[in-house]
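Please check this today:
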Amino acid sequence: MRLLISSLLAGLLCLTVAFPAAAIDLSKDVAGSKDIPGLPRYEGSIIMAYQLGEFDEAVVPLAPFQDGDWSDAVKLEGRVTRILYLAPPDRSSLEVIRNYENSLKELGYTTVFQCGGFDECGKDVDTFYSEDLHGAQFTETHTAKNAFSQMSVKDPRIVVAKGMLDGKESNIFIFAAYQENYHEPQASDRVAVYVQEVLAKPMENKMVVLKADELAQDIDATGKAAIYGIYFDYDKADIKPESKPQLEQMAAMLKSRPELNVLIVGHTDNQGGLDYNMGLSQRRAEAVAAALSKDFGIDGSRLTPKGVAYLAPVATNRTEEGRAKNRRVELVER
C-alpha cells in the first residue's frame, strides 16, 4: 500500500510542476559542509544538506515514534550539527547503519537506543523528518526537503549513541532508510542518512538589555528599536525567564510615554520555510504583547503584534552571526 501511494504522490507532483527543476550536482558535497569531527561518513556518500549551530538545542529520541512524536526523548543544548547524506546506489540501510554502529563503538560511544523496521521504530517514524514541525527537515533546497518523501520510505533504521569527545559529552542520532525523493530523481531509490550531533557546550553570555531611555532614543531617532534581550524556547513562542529584565525596560519606557502606541514586530532568520516562520514570528510577537499587558500592566490596545518572518533582515542569513542579528523583536512607533 505504501508503494502504491508513493507512486501516486510522485505522479501528482509531476503534474503540478509546470517548469523543469534545475539540475543539481550530486557528485560532491554541498558547499561549506563537512563531516562531524571524529565520525566518518559511509564510504561514497555525499552531503546534500548541512547545518551547524554553535549553541542550539535539538531533540534526541530514546524510544520509538508513536502518535506523531517520539514516545520518549530528551532535548539537549550545545553545539548542534545536522547533516543529510546520500549513500551510494545499491546499498541497504542495514549495511549503512551497521557501519555507523561499528564506527561509534570504535570511538567509545555507548548505544542508548536502536531499532530496525517500522515495527520497531514506529509506523510513521519517517515523518520526524518529512513533517517540518519536528525541526529536523532541511528546507534550504527542494532536494533536501524532499528526502524521505512521505510514503516512500522502506527499511528505516536508527541508532542513538552517547560518548565523550575532547572531554565533552557527545550525543549522536542517526536515521538511515531507503527512500525516494519526489523532487530529484537522482536522489531517489537509494539510502539517505540523517546524522545529528549535540556536543555539550556552555552558552556564551551575550545578553543585551536596552534601558528604557535607550529604547526611547532609538524610537525618536528612527521610529523603531531593535531588541535582542528577549529569549524564546527553541522553535516555540514561550518566553524564557531570562527575558524579564528586557521586558521590564520595555514596560518602563511605555509607561513613561503613555501616548505612544507601538507595533511589536517579530523577526526570524531564514532557517525553515516562509509560512512556518511567519507563524512562529507572529506567535512570538503575540507572546511579548501578552507579557507586557498581563505582567506589567500595559494597556493591550497600545500594542499590535505582527510577525514578518525573515522578510526584513538587518544582516546576511548566510552566516551564524548574521542569522543571530536577524532574530529579534522590534518596537515600531504606530
In short: The chain has a mean pLDDT of 88. The chain has two domains: 2-29+39-199, 212-333. The two ends are 55 Å apart (CA to CA).
